[in-house]
Design a protein that fits this description.
The protein is α/β, with parallel strands linked by helices. The protein has a single domain, classed as Rossmann fold, CATH 3.40.50.300. It contains twelve helices and ten strands. It has a six-stranded mixed beta sheet with strand order 6-7-8-3-9-10, with helices on both faces. A four-stranded antiparallel beta sheet has the order 2-1-4-5, with helices on one face. The N and C termini lie far apart (43 Å). The N terminus is likely disordered.
Length: 294
């Protein structure tokens, strides 16, 4: 599913469900009209990625794929290379070896703008919001790639530029409704609690209408209720919009509940890959988390 009409339709038809705990089964989270979840073909293929900073190896020969419409988790202890992996995917870092294929196009050297233009959006572990700007204006920045009017017409807000801005603001209002932050739409982001700032960060990424959404620890620093809310939003984004999600998360309960497949990194190497149940019972993963080998 892609295109603003699909997303807007899903947002407009979405009722505000009761807050459900992350531990509920996915079947209970999926709207009845969507039916069973269908995982598609490989949309993102990471092959033999190696990344070094001087003499420090951050990633060594990492390979995994991501299938369309799935939630793919990347887990591992601190320093395992998880964020470095996302930085390679969205063009922040250029790996010394390996390739990344997105929608059949292989690239080894792409910048963040090109990656975003192709349909990959990203949230960050450390919030990078404009704290003095309102919620709606922060989320509007995610529409920049979609704006066609030149900067002169945008500044004057005349003719087609004004009509275009109205359309983009309407789209952003749908996102605000979806994330249940209507009451804060004109509030400066810096005045919001941390959990709500995380929602704004998610909203800005959604405003790009991505086909693949990279989430770097979206629940870090949250309390239990905030984690439940964020888990519900991630499931809804995946189920209702058909957006493929690549998720880094330290809360193993969340990962095991909402992920379709999990890849495990440790000291920059892949030590496990499979379903949550397979990863849970992998002795190498158990050893890495318990610190019984290295």
């Amino acid at each position: 599913m892609s295109g603003s009409s699909t997303i807007e339709a899903a947002m407009a038809s979405r009722a505000s469900p009761a807050k459900a705990p992350a531990a509920e089964t996915r079947a209970a989270q999926v709207p009845a009209q969507t039916g069973a979840k269908v995982i598609g073909d490989v949309i993102l293929d990471v092959k033999n990625i190696s990344l070094s900073f001087g003499g420090v190896k951050a990633l060594t020969d990492i390979s995994f794929d991501v299938r369309e419409h799935e939630i793919r988790a990347i887990i591992g202890p601190n320093g395992a290379g998880k964020s470095s992996m996302l930085n390679c995917i969205n063009g922040v870092y250029t790996p010394q070896q390996g390739t990344i294929t997105f929608k059949g196009k292989t690239f080894s050297n792409m910048d963040s703008y090109q990656v975003a233009s192709m349909g990959i959006a990203r949230t960050f572990q450390n919030l990078a919001l404009f704290k003095g700007m309102s919620v709606i204006d922060n989320i509007m920045t995610g529409r920049n790639l979609r704006i066609k009017s030149n900067i002169f017409l945008q500044a004057l807000r005349i003719g087609p530029a004004e009509r275009e801005e109205i359309r983009h603001r309407e789209f952003v209002e749908h996102i605000i409704d979806f994330l249940e932050i209507q009451a804060f739409r004109k509030t400066a982001v810096g005045q919001l609690p941390y959990g709500l700032q995380k929602r704004v960060d998610l909203g800005r990424a959604l405003a790009m209408e991505p086909q693949v959404l990279l989430l770097d620890e979206p629940m870090a620093g949250m309390n239990l209720e905030e984690k439940q809310d964020m888990s519900r939003f991630v499931l809804d984004i995946n189920d209702e919009f058909g957006t493929t999600v690549v998720l880094i998360e330290h809360d193993m309960g969340v990962v095991m509940d909402i992920s379709d497949r999990v890849v495990v990194l440790d000291y920059g190497k892949k030590i496990g890959d499979g379903t949550p149940e397979e990863v849970r019972n992998n002795p190498d993963v158990i050893s890495a988390y318990l610190g019984t080998s290295h």
